[in-house]
Write a structure and sequence with these properties.
Distance between the termini: 60 Å
Strand content: 15-25%
CATH architecture of the largest domain: 3-Layer(aba) Sandwich
Largest sheet: 7 strands, mixed
Structural class: alpha/beta
Number of helices: 14
Number of strands: 13
Bound molecules: pyridoxal-5'-phosphate
Helix content: 40-55%
Strand order of the largest sheet: 3-9-8-7-6-4-5
Length: 406
């Protein structure tokens, strides 16, 4: 064993300063240790040697361990190697990347698509590339952090509207139009990741069109979940051709990693010239691209997976509400169990873990203060028996914490 060299005074000073920040987080109950899985991601996982029913992943369809994806990854690595060794715009675009983009465009029913390293990278890249000084973004107050960060990187103005509130979106759009901006872009999550509610997309699109605004939808939690074969919220609401930018991730229901924007050829051409994560960060490994193509194959050929996801969702939601939990406004497999205080959410999560269920507590700043919760996501791969055992654990833990009403 080699010893770690003694840190210099400057290195120690930085650590001391950071430690003070960390102590403050611990005092406020906002310090979150990492949970380390000793097993593949799945409906059941092992943490600290304990086998747990897993309600904390975004692995909606269990595609991460689907034989076709595993085979595509293995064969892809054998044929193409491990990494690409370049950014897309220099030497890192391989035919498999363009094949994946063509498949995504066809799946999303758009002219073109462009793949990024992650959903986060897409939002940051797209917003910072498309918007400049003199433009404005109109954004739902509860949009995902990656959208907020993307907006921060632009010199465009921003106008926020109340969460999923069509009247307030109308006010924001009218204000944007009256000020004579060059480009107006309305941005919303398709499904909101912490509440599981669906954006009122038809109303948003109609109002955006009325005020000369383009619409961008982030379907990270909707792809593989909503719409025909999991095509997402644009398809769910029959709005093909009216949503300029369809963002998605390959890291959730698709079971791999990466992000994409499905849009016009012109948008794709523009992003290739301007999107900074595309220009300055290396491209996804070819085996990843092939695995993502296999994921689209599975979405198109095994619709029973999505049916099972929704059967499990209905069963679990019904169970939670019959027990008397407050599950907020969720309409999707994301079901929050509302606890108000962060300390209650943490206690609920701990009690669940003692009872064999892994469901993470989520507090500020991921959700607003006083809106702490345990967030659950069921998947297609959970068995009925597992979901019933999880409901028993919730009943027992919820009773102890006085969370059951009615
Ligand atoms: C998870 C998520 C992302 C980020 O996707 P990654 O591929 O994990 O980087 C972006 N937007 C929303 C709405 C998300 O839920």
């Amino acid at each position: 064993m080699t010893e770690t060299p003694r840190p210099s005074d400057a290195v120690q000073a930085l650590d001391r300063s950071l430690s003070a920040d960390l102590d403050r987080l611990r005092e406020e109950g906002l310090y979150h240790p990492l949970r380390v899985l000793e097993s593949p991601q799945g409906h059941e996982v092992t943490i600290g040697g304990q086998s747990l029913i897993n309600l904390s992943s975004n692995n909606y369809l269990g595609l991460n361990t689907h034989p076709r994806l595993i085979e595509a990854t293995v064969q892809g690595a054998r044929k193409w190697g491990a990494g690409t060794g370049a950014v897309r715009t220099i030497a890192g675009t391989q035919s498999v990347h363009e094949q994946l983009e063509a498949r995504i465009a066809a799946f999303k029913r758009t002219e073109a698509a462009l793949v990024f390293q992650s959903g986060y990278a897409v939002n940051v890249g797209v917003l910072s590339a498309l918007l400049e000084e003199g433009d404005v973004v109109v954004s739902d107050k509860l949009n995902h952090a990656s959208i907020i960060d993307g907006i921060r990187l632009t010199k465009a103005d921003r106008i926020l509207y109340e969460h999923c509130d069509l009247d307030d979106a109308e006010r924001a759009l009218a204000e944007a139009q009256a000020k004579g901006y060059r480009r107006i872009l309305l941005v919303t999550d398709g499904v909101f990741s912490m509440d599981g509610d669906i954006a009122p997309l038809p109303g948003l699109v109609e109002r955006a069109e009325h005020h000369g605004a383009a619409v961008m939808v982030d379907d990270a939690h909707a792809t593989g979940v909503l719409g025909d074969h999991g095509r997402g919220t644009t398809d769910h609401f029959g709005l093909h051709g009216r949503v300029a930018l369809n963002i998605g991730t390959l890291s959730k229901a698709a079971g791999v990693v990466g992000g994409y924007v499905a849009a016009s050829q012109t948008v794709r051409d523009h992003l290739i010239q301007r999107a900074r994560p595309f220009l300055f960060s290396s491209s996804p490994p070819p085996a990843v691209a092939l695995s993502c193509i296999a994921a689209i194959d599975v979405l198109e050929s095994e619709p029973e997976l999505i049916e099972r996801l929704w059967e499990n969702t209905r069963h679990f939601k019904r169970g939670l509400s019959e027990l008397g939990f407050d599950t907020g406004a969720s309409q999707t497999p994301i079901t929050p169990v509302m606890c108000r205080e962060a300390s209650i959410a943490t206690q609920l999560s701990d009690l669940l873990m003692e009872r064999g269920v892994f469901a993470q507590a989520i507090g500020f700043p991921t959700v607003p203060l006083g809106r702490a919760r345990v967030r659950t996501i069921v998947t297609a791969t959970h068995t009925r028996e597992e979901l019933d055992r999880a409901l028993d654990a919730f009943a027992d833990a919820g009773r102890r914490l006085g969370l059951l009403h009615g």
